[in-house]
Amino acid sequence: MSAAEEARKLLEGITPGPWEAEPWDGTTRESVGVFAGSVWGPRVAGLITSSADAEFIAATPELVPALLAELDQAKADLDAAAYRHGQLQSRIANRDATIQRVRELIAEWSWTEHHHDEPVYEIWKPLARIVGGES
Predict the structure, then answer these.
(1) Is beta strand 31-36 parallel, antiparallel or unpaired with respect to 19-24?
(2) What's the pLDDT band for 26 if we cut at 50, 70, 90?
(3) Whole-prediction pTM value?
(4) DSSP state of 30
(5) Which residues have CB under 8 Å from 4's CB, separation 6+?
(6) With contact defined as beta carbons under 8 Å apart, do 59 and 14 qualify?
């Protein structure tokens, strides 16, 4: 199971957020409780001695789904980029095949058999220079 799948599974059935970290009185040491909604809501975690831990725990019902949504978007973007890359690679392969075919045709062309005043010469000669044929 991936971390994302595990996070989604763990989110199922939790007390709905938002959760709030509030100081908790009535103990012999300073501690923080995490409550659903407010200090008057049900305590979802309690008697935590670190305020930072309590704040982090309180943030998880909203933070984890937001991170999962960003992960899903990043995966979708990556899939789209991979698809576009494949399309581009295909176009490059087609271009390279076309250039190779033009080079073959240029190599087969007999410059001495054709007069330079023929219309094809006006296209053929610059094309030969472009694809690396005769200059």
Answers:
(1) antiparallel
(2) low
(3) 0.65
(4) -
(5) 68, 71
(6) no
Answer whether residue 104 is part of any domain.
Answer: yes
Residue 117: which domain range? Answer: 3-130
Give residue 135's pLDDT: 42
Q: What mean pLDDT value characterizes the chain?
A: 82
Residue 11 lies in a domain: yes
The answer for 47, left when phi > 0, alpha when psi is -120 to 50, beta otherwise, is: left
| Angstrom distances, CA of residue 109 to CA of 18, 22, 102, 105 | 77, 86, 10, 6
Q: Indicate the number of domains in the chain.
A: 1
19 phi, psi to nearest 5 deg: -105, 150
Question: Which residues in 30-62 are b (16+ Cβ under 10 Å) and which e?
Answer: ebbbbbbeeeebeebbeebeeeeebeebbbbbe
Residue 135: inside a domain, yes or no? no
Confirm whether 74 is domain-assigned.
Answer: yes
pLDDT single digits (tens) 57-106: 889 999 999 999 999 999 999 999 999 999 999 999 999 998 888 888 77
